[in-house]
């Protein structure tokens, strides 16, 4: 028995005539008709964050084992020299207006010159702490704080400087515990120093939205966890275009499959990703295929384009379904969260609403649901919390 888990990031939506409802997706609907459908409540308590969703879908999330977004992003970039005393931080290049307020939290999603700016900041040292800066996907960076002396202790128990909205000043980073005071102080000095350096870089005069400040959040550090193989007894791999998915997979000991043209954006090479998913099913028991373009199109207010992208996903899915033996394979399709793509629905943000999910293939007795969308799936099963994969494994035993 093989399992193909397809996570369509932020594909689930809100409102009438969602992209799932308007898209022509015969292959996905065929899986729905011949399988079971329902809603998965990921279990978000605060603002939905994708890494929580991935871990929860796979049955792994707990506060004890969660290492923080920064650590997972660092793993996703292939970083291997992370020490037990290092702190990893997820950062955004952002645009600061002359009045000191945030103009754009993602620096216009423009990557022009960001590699150069990252290299400019890399290697900074403040009060015995070395800052290693790595360019990540799009406007993102990963910062690894390394104490230069074993007597220096740094902490991940600090607040973000990101107010999560524009036209307001950047916040001060504050300690959550007494032990984190030094770390907060060093980070505030880092933000101040890096802002001054970025403001002097020539490439920022060529950009519509200057990348002249870093917004920091997702602080984390190395933590041990049971591997996917140890928990489920299955050999597994991950096919994804963005570092955070690769980081979660690496954290769980899954193999990472690199696909040429897998960008994490709507221009990603879907055909190559689905082809690799099929080939990987010949070698692995469990294949995680992640597609991120649906989430990007939501954030960019492109509801119709999102529906067309779902149609493109469906066509590529159809190509491998003609080759896969569904008597020996289970296909799961779900999302890590909903991402609202219309102005009337949460302002293009991730939402906590349960996501439509289908399970089809080996030994799955069909229910009465014939289409895959938010409304249709509401008439099926309901899973709450940390249980998607465990639920499926019980079905097929």
Q: Care to give the gist of this entry?
A:
This protein has 13 helices and 16 strands.
Structure, explained:
- It contains 13 helices and 16 strands.
- It folds into 2 domains: about 1-65 and about 225-395, 3-Layer(aba) Sandwich (Alkaline Phosphatase, subunit A); about 75-220, Alpha-Beta Plaits.
- With about 400 residues, the protein is α/β, with parallel strands linked by helices.
- The strands form 3 sheets. It has an 8-stranded mixed beta sheet, sandwiched between helices.
- The N and C termini lie close together (about 10 Å).
For the structure shown, list the relevant keywords:
397 residues, alpha/beta, Alkaline Phosphatase, subunit A, Alpha-Beta Plaits, 2 domains, 8-stranded mixed sheet, 13 helices, 22% strand, globular
What is the highest CATH level, the class of the largest domain?
Answer: Alpha Beta
Radius of gyration: 21 Å
Q: Termini, distance in Å? A: 10 Å
Query: In percent, how much strand structure appears in the residues?
Result: 15-25%
According to DSSP, the number of beta strands is 16
Tally of distinct domains: 2
| Order of secondary-structure elements | EHHEHHEEHEEEHEHEHEHEHHEEEEHEH
What sort of overall outline do the alpha carbons produce when their principal axes are compared?
globular
Largest sheet: 8 strands, mixed
| Mean model confidence by pLDDT | 94
**Which CATH architecture of the largest domain would you pick?**
3-Layer(aba) Sandwich
Named CATH topology of the largest domain = Alkaline Phosphatase, subunit A
Structural class: alpha/beta
- With strands numbered from the N-terminus, the spatial order across the biggest sheet is 10-9-11-1-12-15-2-16
């Amino acid at each position: 028995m093989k399992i193909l888990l397809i996570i369509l990031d932020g594909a689930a939506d809100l409102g009438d005539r969602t992209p799932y409802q308007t898209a022509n997706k015969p292959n996905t609907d065929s899986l729905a008709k011949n399988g079971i459908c329902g809603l998965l409540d990921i279990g978000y308590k605060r603002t939905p964050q994708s890494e929580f969703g991935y871990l929860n879908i796979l049955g792994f999330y707990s506060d004890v084992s969660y290492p923080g977004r920064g650590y997972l992003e660092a793993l996703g970039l292939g970083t291997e020299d992370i020490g037990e005393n290092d702190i990893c931080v997820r950062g955004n290049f952002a645009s600061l207006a002359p009045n000191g307020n945030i103009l754009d939290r993602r620096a216009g999603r423009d990557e022009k010159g960001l590699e150069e700016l990252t290299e400019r900041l890399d290697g900074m040292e403040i009060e015995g702490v070395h800052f290693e800066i790595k360019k990540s996907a799009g406007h993102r960076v990963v910062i690894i704080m390394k104490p230069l002396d074993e007597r220096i202790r740094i902490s991940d128990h600090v607040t973000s400087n990101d107010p999560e909205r524009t036209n307001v000043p950047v916040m001060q980073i504050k300690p959550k515990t007494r032990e984190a005071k030094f770390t907060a102080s060093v980070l505030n000095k880092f933000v101040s120093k890096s802002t001054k350096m970025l403001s002097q870089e020539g490439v920022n005069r060529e950009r519509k939205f200057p990348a002249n400040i870093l917004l920091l959040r997702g602080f984390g550090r190395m933590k041990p966890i049971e591997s996917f193989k140890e928990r489920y007894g299955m050999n597994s791999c991950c096919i994804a275009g963005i570092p955070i998915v690769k980081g979660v997979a690496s954290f769980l000991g899954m193999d990472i499959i690199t696909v040429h043209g897998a960008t994490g954006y709507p221009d990603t090479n879907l055909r190559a990703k689905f082809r690799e998913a099929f080939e990987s099913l010949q070698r692995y028991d469990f294949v995680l295929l992640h597609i991120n373009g649906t989430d990007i199109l939501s954030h960019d207010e492109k509801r119709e384009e999102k529906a067309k992208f779902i149609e493109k996903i469906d066509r590529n899915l159809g190509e491998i379904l003609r080759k896969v033996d569904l008597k020996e394979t289970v296909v799961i399709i779900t999302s890590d969260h909903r991402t609202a793509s219309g102005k009337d629905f949460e302002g293009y943000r991730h939402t906590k609403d349960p996501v439509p999910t289908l399970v089809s293939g080996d030994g799955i007795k069909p229910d009465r649901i014939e289409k895959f969308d938010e409304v249709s799936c509401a008439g099926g099963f309901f899973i709450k919390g940390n249980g998607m994969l465990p639920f499926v494994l019980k079905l097929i035993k």
